[in-house]
Amino acid sequence: MGCAISSLGAKAELGERNTADGAAAHLSEEQIQMIKESWQVIRDDIAKVGIIMFVRLFETHPECKDVFFLFRDVEDLEKLRTSRELRAHGLRVMSFIEKSVARLDQMERLEALALELGKSHYHYNAPPKYYSYVGAEFVCAVQPLLKDRWTAELEEAWETMFQYVTGLMRQGYQEESCRQRHLAASSKERPDKRNTAL
Fold it and tell me: How far is CA 186 from CA 47, 172, 176, 183, 193, in A?
């Protein structure tokens, strides 16, 4: 049992990603219950967890800051810890995690939520290679909050959930990327109205 950087993050770096359906199939009722119970403790400190998660993300993967134009040039991690913008983004991510946890019993709704988030990340220029890093940093950030409640089984449950969600986000990103390429190609095929004679 240790920090998820050694497991979830490493798996992403090595390309050992489960398919979205494969990960969902391995999320047992017991794991869902463990996630929901641990969320009851985590949610009391969601702002704190969000900030810790992103500061750690920028410490361990500084290249991720390039995706965030507001934080791109901030070198002082203390400034990040007190940044209102980072706090707001951390809260948005934590809100998504909360919605994901609430939908673990309604996989169709969770799938739609994660696919949409992946599509919106295409427009934010946030490529899929970074998604699993956030899950790994989340796990590291919540371990101290849960103290003796943290177990290898709980870590595996959270990792499985994040693999499932990030797999769906990747799928949504790819779908939107294909859609945008198709739109760009079809607009090039249409004749330019300005050049047609009447």
Answer: 44, 21, 15, 5, 14
What's the mean pLDDT in 165-177? 96
Query: Which amino acid is present at 71?
Result: F
Within 10 angstroms of residue 51's Cβ, the number of other Cβ atoms is 22
The whole-angstrom separation of Cα 12 and Cα 135 is: 10
Distance from C-alpha of 172 to C-alpha of 168, rounded to nearest angstrom: 6
How many CB atoms neighbour CB 4 within 10 A?
25
Amino acid identity, position 86? L
Give a three-class secondary structure readout of the chain.
Answer: CCCHHHCHHHHHHHCCCCCHHHHHHCCCHHHHHHHHHHHHHHHHHHHHHHHHHHHHHHHHCHHHHHHCCCCCCCCCHHHHHCCHHHHHHHHHHHHHHHHHHHCCCCHHHHHHHHHHHHHHHHHCCCCHHHHHHHHHHHHHHHHHHHHHHCCHHHHHHHHHHHHHHHHHHHHHHHHHHHHHHHHHHHHHHCCCHHHCCC
Q: What is the pLDDT averaged over residues 130-139?
A: 93
With 70 as the cut, is the pLDDT of residue 161 above it?
yes
In the chain, pLDDT over 90 holds for what percent of residues?
63
